[in-house]
Amino acid sequence: MTSLYVPITVKEKEELKLPPIGVSAKDVTEIDSSRGSQASRSGNHSRRHGTNAKQDRNKEMVEEARNREVRSVVFRSLSNPPFDVNPAQLLVDVSKRIKLPRREGARSFKHLLKAPMSCQILSYFFWYLHCAQFQEESEKYQRRLLDALSEKFVMLFWSLKGGPQRDFFLEYYPFALASGVCTAFVEKYPASRAEFTESFRNRVFQEARLMFSGVETTAEAMGVVRERMALDRNKGTGVGRGSEDMHVQANQDEEQGPSSSADAFTEDLREEISALPGFVDRKNMRPKRVIFDAMGTSPLIRHYIDAVADSASVRNTTPAPD
User: Angle at Cα 264 formed by Cα 263 and Cα 268, nearest 5°?
Assistant: First the structure.
């Protein structure tokens, strides 16, 4: 007689998920549930461990940034600087504080100030000053930064259309950039804040004006510029006048036109720069207009032109490969 019993293979048992002999289906469900709970607890523990490790690393980074000293940071690469300066936020802050006369070119100035290329310029200028003033044996890095800085500055400058926009840009852009850089030094090097004195800030403004506009000026004059243009964060322009008041006043000036102080500031600047080489005061052609000879005076533009000429000379004198 043929048996109707057909043995079930191990593989078939696994596919059917049959419980072992002597174990009920209810017991299997409880076992699976227990295993799932253990796996879940293990997964939660791993996630908590990963979260704690990330939090610890973040705390270490915050502590490291809090104790960062300017002379302990070494710059070696344009593409991989020691840390992000966060230029976009710095320039937005400057654009909110700065007081500008209401002239042709003022409206496009703030838009240009917050452009991505301005962010690159501020970063390069920050690291150039870092190397020049606080990092020894950094001449080759300074040259690389100058090359990158001059290229971006020329591109930004020639993107402007018309003489009035370029005049306004060259007159005020160095001051706005210097303000952002001074704030970056204070924020990024908390342990070295004692070094960023009034004298240091004035030197940064002097260097910016000389480098971008080719105009030499005194530290005292730069102190006046910082005060009248509201370029010092958390510092008002008069006794009992805080930064919030300056924001309100700056907005009112932009809506209603230049205030008497803005007019006076502009006239003082013109009196100072009109006597310097590279400027031609064409009062007979257009009153209160200063034309700037960027090609002949700006060190950054000259540096870019010289670099392009040297590069072309190298290409022309290098023999072609056989």
Answer: 120
